[in-house]
Design a protein that fits this description.
mainly alpha
């Protein structure tokens, strides 16, 4: 078809409004030509000291970079999670930077205490852990007054909160305060006890065992801080008596604040216990939560009753107003206990109990029994009720199964055995004492039960208790007393030094028996026989081997108590004296204890408890065997300090004690042979010196010594004098000390020479003979002896008294001098130049001394 030309031309003449541009797929469209360029190019402007990090430089921050100030501000944030995180941040800072707590503790506590009544459970728990683990331990050594006052204000305020959870947490916080600051309880005792009473009155809490347990835990802590009777504590724990022995007997005020609250609290607790018993029987089981609650209730009752008993005891020495208040209080609590609590005793379940439940029931029954025994009017209760308790006590003491478990929970009942046995009939008393004796005999020597039994026995054997007077009507009591007394020495040996507390209690009991024995002939006989086993407590000799007992290893206070026991033996056995002297010879025994033994034995002798022969034998044995250490031995090294001063003091004390035996002449004649035999025996120089000093003490003028003794001593004297020179050499750096030490050993012999010229003559002849014999067998030893003999003569010339009597021994002295000269002038000797020089030097010094003495020129 042919197009019209006019139409074609018309179309070609029209203009194009939009030109369509074809784009390839995937290409980005270019910006429009009229698009505005928004790109900005700039440089950062840095202003110094304007960054947040710079502001916190040098400050302690948490892991999130927050300072302590910021965290404390966030603890008041409206969001609970922020408050909790802030508390965790505070804990983080204090753990990393402990000094922050020391610097800001009061400000921190003042701010954080606001969270005690926080509405959020997790915030309160986090705050509690922060105080428990970080803040209070860090403030334990600081002044507690400001800290406690800051905390208690908000704690008591939180106790008025409507929400029970906040209420309970406030009690938990107060319990925490008492854990770290127990002395603050007295300031708030009445107020907090009233708060506990009000809380326990809310019956809906009693069915929630976890909440009740939490309440009772804090209550027990409060009750345990009530003032108690200090005298009872001293009787129960005899080791404290020494600590209080020298304290002035000052009358201490009794604070009865809170007594009325306790009076109101007791029936509430008894009611709680009855409800728990009813729930236990209805469920026929005893779960852990129920048991804990029942145990805590009984412990609370026990504390209240114990407080009333201690106050009643104190009221005996107080004004009548105090006494009347306590009597009224006791009359109030007793009916509550008798009418309600004892109705369920002994606790049991209808259905079969497991072994665990059986143990729990036993714990509760023992605690009820303790409460019963604490009451002053328990003996006035109905006979049927008393019989139930006595039967339980007897059967419990006789139980052997689960020994450790039973001993642990029977322990609180043992202190009441003396009081119990005083007020029950003879037949039942014998059965209870039989069971008690079995417990005392079979329990572990190192256990607390043994210590409690010893304390109870001490109370029963005390004459002031009146218990011991019952044996006139009940002879079986004496049998038990004898069994207890006879077991004490064996117990002490068995204990060794493993339990000093129990050892001390046992020794104190034995001492008390010795003190009271004279008033009871039967007990006196039994006490006397204990010394045969008691000697093993000190030491024993088996087949020439010395076995030291526990006495050596125990503390000085126990050692002194044991020695005081020894004093009370009216006739002391010689074997006991032997064991004591072996202790004195032990190097491990302190010197002060040696002198304590000597003093006690001297007192016992003066009291007529030791025969004179045994007493003298003890001291002679001590002088002959007490060794000086270290002895002069270049081979053996000794790392201990020398006891030379102790030996000198022992010698002085023994000489003093023996001189007090009676007439010196008679005493010397009695001991002369023993003394001379010891001097002539092979004992060390110090021991010979001790016996020489004993001779001078008993016979100062040496007029009583026999001719035979002089002959015997003359053979030992030369060697003794030479030993003195050998063992006490003058120190070149301090010759005065060496000369003084040598004179200590020479002066006793000079006294003997001065009183017995004949002895000096014989000794000089003996030494002259030795010098003359040296020429046939020269050696280093011979040269040393020659020099020693010369030194002895020089010391004699220095003593004015001996120098006067040497004129009667000119021949013997000249003989010694001439024999020394002959050795030097002899050409047949094999002396070395050094040996010849030593003899020449001794000869020259001796000649110079002789020339200055007119009587020997």
């Amino acid at each position: 078809m042919v197009k019209n030309k006019s139409q074609s031309k018309k179309f070609q003449k029209r203009g194009v409004d939009f030109k369509k541009i074809k784009r390839k797929i995937g290409r980005k469209l270019p910006p429009p030509k009229n698009a505005t360029n928004t790109e900005i190019k700039s440089k950062a402007i840095v202003l110094p000291e304007q960054s947040i990090a710079a502001e916190k430089a040098g400050l302690a921050v948490s892991r999130k970079g927050l300072t302590l100030k910021e965290l404390l501000q966030q603890t008041s944030h409206h969001n609970a999670k922020v408050r909790k995180d802030a508390l965790l941040g505070v804990k983080d800072i204090f753990l990393k930077h402990p000094n922050e707590l020391k610097l800001h503790k009061l400000a921190v506590i003042e701010k954080l205490r606001e969270r005690i009544g926080d509405d959020d459970k997790f915030v309160r728990e986090t705050l509690y852990q922060l105080f428990k683990s970080v803040i209070f331990p860090g403030c334990a050594m600081d002044n507690q007054g400001p800290i406690v006052s800051l905390m208690t204000a908000y704690t008591f305020h939180a106790m008025t909160h409507l929400a029970i959870e906040v209420h309970l947490m406030a009690f938990k916080f107060f319990d925490l305060i008492l854990q770290f600051f127990p002395s603050s309880f007295s300031l708030y005792a009445e107020k907090i006890l009233q708060k506990y009473k009000d809380l326990l009155c809310k019956n809906h809490l009693l069915h929630d065992k976890s909440k009740l347990k939490s309440i009772l835990t804090g209550l027990i802590r409060c009750l345990s801080l009530l003032p108690c009777n200090e005298r009872e504590e001293e009787n129960e724990f005899p080791e404290r008596e020494v600590l209080h022995a020298y304290e002035p007997d000052v009358e201490r005020p009794i604070d009865l604040a809170g007594t009325k609250t306790l009076k109101d609290l007791l029936p509430i607790l008894v009611g709680c216990f009855q409800d728990s018993i009813a729930l236990m029987h209805s469920a026929s089981q005893l779960d852990g939560q129920s048991f804990d609650c029942m145990l805590f209730i009984l412990q609370s009752i026990d504390f209240i009753v114990g407080f009333s008993v201690s106050r009643e005891a104190d009221s005996q020495i107080r004004p009548s107003r105090w006494k009347s208040d306590m009597i009224a209080y006791d009359q109030f609590i007793s009916p509550i206990i008798f009418k309600k609590l004892w109705e369920v005793f002994p606790l049991n379940l209808v259905y079969h109990l497991s072994e665990k439940d059986d143990g729990r029931i036993f714990m509760l029954n023992t605690l009820i029994t303790k409460i019963f025994l604490q009451l002053s009017c328990w003996s006035q209760c109905p006979s049927a009720l008393l019989e139930k308790f006595l039967e339980f006590i007897e059967s419990s003491l006789s139980t052997k199964s689960g020994k450790v478990f039973h001993e642990k929970h029977l322990l609180p009942l043992i202190p009441y055995i003396p009081k119990l046995t005083m007020q029950i009939c003879s037949e039942r008393r014998s059965r209870v004492l039989q069971a008690f004796t079995e417990v005392f005999t079979n329990c572990n020597p190192e256990s607390s039960m043994k210590l409690a039994c010893i304390s109870a026995i001490k109370e029963m054997l005390d004459p002031e208790s009146g218990w011991i007077d019952l044996d006139a009507n009940d002879p079986t009591l004496l049998d038990y007393a004898i069994a207890w007394i006879q077991s004490l020495p064996s117990l002490l040996i068995l204990l060794d030094d493993k339990n000093p507390l129990c050892s001390k209690a046992a020794v104190r009991l034995l001492l008390r028996v010795g003190q009271v024995a004279p008033v009871r002939a039967s007990i006196l006989r039994e006490f006397e026989t204990t010394q045969y086993n008691f000697k093993g407590f000190f030491s024993m000799k088996k087949e020439e081997v010395i076995c030291y007992g526990p006495f050596i290893k125990l503390s000085p206070d126990i050692q002194q108590l044991a020695l005081h026991c020894v004093y009370y033996y009216s006739v002391m056995d010689s074997l006991l004296l032997q064991s004591l002297v072996l202790c004195c010879l032990c190097d491990d025994l302190e010197p002060d204890m040696v002198f304590c033994i000597l003093e006690v034995l001297n007192c016992a002798f003066r009291a007529g408890h030791i025969p004179i022969a045994d007493y003298a034998s003890f001291h002679v044995t001590l002088l002959s065997r007490f060794r000086v250490y270290p002895e002069k031995n270049p081979v053996v090294e000794y790392d201990r300090k020398s006891n030379r001063r102790t030996v000198k003091r022992v010698t002085k004390e023994v000489c003093s004690y023996l001189s007090q035996l009676g007439d010196h002449d008679l005493v010397f004649r009695m001991l002369e042979k023993i003394i001379v035999d010891q001097i002539c025996s092979e004992i060390p120089m110090d021991n010979k010196c001790a016996f020489l000093r004993l001779i001078v003490t008993l016979d100062p003028k040496v007029t009583s010594i026999s001719d035979q003794s002089i002959v015997n001593i003359s053979h030992a004297f030369p060697q003794y004098l030479i030993d003195v020179i050998y063992n006490v050499e003058e120190d070149d750096h301090d010759s005065a000390i060496g000369a003084k030490r040598r004179l200590y050993y020479l002066i006793p012999s000079f006294y003997v020479f001065h009183g017995c010229n004949q002895l000096l003559n014989v000794v000089l002849k003996e030494m002259g003979f030795w010098v003359s014999e040296f020429s046939s067998s020269f050696g280093s030893c011979s040269v040393d002896k020659i020099c020693a003999i010369a030194s002895i003569l020089l010391d004699m010339y220095k003593d004015a008294k001996i120098r006067k009597i040497l004129s009667s021994c000119n021949i013997e002295v000249e003989t010694i001098f001439q024999n020394v000269f002959n050795i030097l002038s002899s050409e047949g000797t094999n002396l070395t130049l050094e040996e010849k020089h030593k003899i020449q030097s001794a000869y020259d010094r001796l000649r110079a001394s002789m020339e200055t003495t007119p009587s020997t020129k």
